[in-house]
Amino acid sequence: MQTVHLRWNIFLSICILSAILVSCQTAQQKVKTDDIPKPAMAKVEMVKETVHGIELEDPYRYMENLKDSAVVKWIKSQDDYTRTILNRIPLRDQLKDRMRELIATTPANIYNLRKFEDRYFFMKRNKDEDLAKLYFRDGLDGEDQLLVDPMSFNQGEESHHSISYYSPSWDGKFIAFGVSASGSENATLRIMEVDTKEILKEEFPRVQFGLISWTLDNKGIFFNQLNATDNPMEKYANSKVYFHMLGNDASNQKEIFSNAVYPDLGIANADFPIVVTSKDTKKLFAFIIHGVDDRLTLHMTDYPSKMTTNMKWVNVFDVEDSVTNLALKENSLFCMTIKDAPKAKLVKIELDNPDIKNPELIMPEQNGVLKNISTSKDALYAVYAEKGLGKIIRLPYGDLDKKQELALPFKGEVSLAQMDNDTEGIIFNLVTWTQARAYYKYDPGNDQVVKTTIQPQSPFGSPDQFITKDVMVKSHDETMVPLTIMHHKDVVLDGKNPTILYAYGSYGSTNDPSFSFVRYSWLEAGGIYAVAHVRGGGIFGKQWHEAGKMANKPNTWKDFIACAEYLIDNKYTSPSKIGSVGGSAGGITVGRSMTERPDVFKAVVSIVGSSNMVRIGSDPNGPPNFPEFGNPENPEEFKYLYEMDTYQHIKNGQNYPSVMFTGGMNDPRVIAWIPAKATAKMQAIQGENPVLLRMDFDAGHGIGSTLTQGLDMWADIFAFFMWQFGEI
Prior knowledge:
The chain has about 725 residues and is α+β, with helices and mostly antiparallel strands. It has 12 helices and 38 strands.
């Protein structure tokens, strides 16, 4: 009876939403906007220059000064206008309410689970809360105990705070965590004693990325701290690792690893050094992260009795060795490397003789992409994925040849929880496009995978009314590109369906299966949602990434265009009913798709999207991203940046789709002037199709946003599309 009852509720919801759509269509209701005062067009202050032989025109460069009150006032007027329009769109509030209703059917959302000793730490957002809090429990089945409520740091401010990261001590008795205001990611590091829940007096600003490790005696921490500078362009330059003993004043911290301390190690300005410990060995490790390049540098030394600045570091591997991830068990260092293996192979070296040039091969390159590895007490576990569907291989330490593939309850995306080496087996997440995420535990004693109760489940978490289909699409150069298509089973392929096409396509990042009640509401209302796994991503490994990077970047948006045309040619939708969405670096994908083929899409939404790549050198977050997109000081690489620049390719005389750019005034990754400039330029040349700027003044890149902020954004996006598709 319960199953029938739930299905009936789903059916009723579809009927209600469908009735809303039909009634709007029948009435041919228009969104009245002519009575809303339009904000002033942005003034033009043309900058013309020739850079590496390429002539550039930049009429809105002055907007890059976000300290100019006139620029901020213009952005605010644009946001006010946009929100006034969006709030008038029928179905906007209904969709938001439905999203919240569906999300509330899950009692709590649990993520970032970690085990230290017998304590389990995790982030948890209860169904009636807007932000996640930090909890722990003693034992897997223990009672949840609240540690940190980020809103307690607000101190009466209108803005909100969120937890950016956390790191427990090895014994689970202390926990370091970062708190950021208004989605800025500008975290301040704090430390709490777990048993007493007392927050220690010391605090450290500018610890943005949570690159933290604890000493083996649990009395001190290492952390990467950004520069204290008034020059925003130096914010990420020359960061340093500091050491601090608990209980001392915050000023009593010691610079322990940096370019200044060890100039011979070649730490570049854009690098991020970190120091790491491991309970398994009396070694101290120093990593160097080279911006967004996933190939690491590692040095090590004997664990010192006292932290000094004259330690003798031994290089373990460098960038040319192409190690992208590792796991340590006693004296063995297991490494994922993409050297001569685009999908990654698994090798082992010994710490007493770390010869990365001649490692022991543990697992050669497989058909699937090696995504992650993790050590436990009994075995090494490796996660592979083929077209996003994961599998777990167990490799017992005593006999690595006796590897086995774990029997998972269903095929989906797999991610491992962080466990210590004293734990038998593993805990992992499993999720699909139509199956909500849950935690599972593998017990090597009985060789069983069991679903845990860590993540409460929703009665709507396994809907059977939605269809997911994976197809291969021929791109411009005959390359076959994966495309995932989701829709309600009753959708008729008549070319009339409102459709959203999403893609990212950078850093080798993959759009793996995920379950979303936000997407659920769109599918439930009759929409189609498709994900294009374009080049520049990593669904097929490093080669797929390289095929959409720098000089090859045009493949990213050309793949995206091909996927849109597939949806049109196969009657899923039509040019008047399809919209594109991309966020962050995905702004390159949707932006250049729009400028190259404005006839393909009816509407475009760029969420905190990168759209002015030739100015990457003027963005504080630019230099760490040079390895992915190009260095503007390099004449050849500047050509690549120009080619992927949406702003420079917006031209007069084109009939562009309707566009909404979104941004966050506190965004440290895609700074707010980037979407502002793109909006101003498009508004100056656009015809009847609207160009809107939606700017959140209490948010950044979306990281650390509240649930309400997220629902508001997606309700606005869905409503914008329905409006432009003529569905209301």
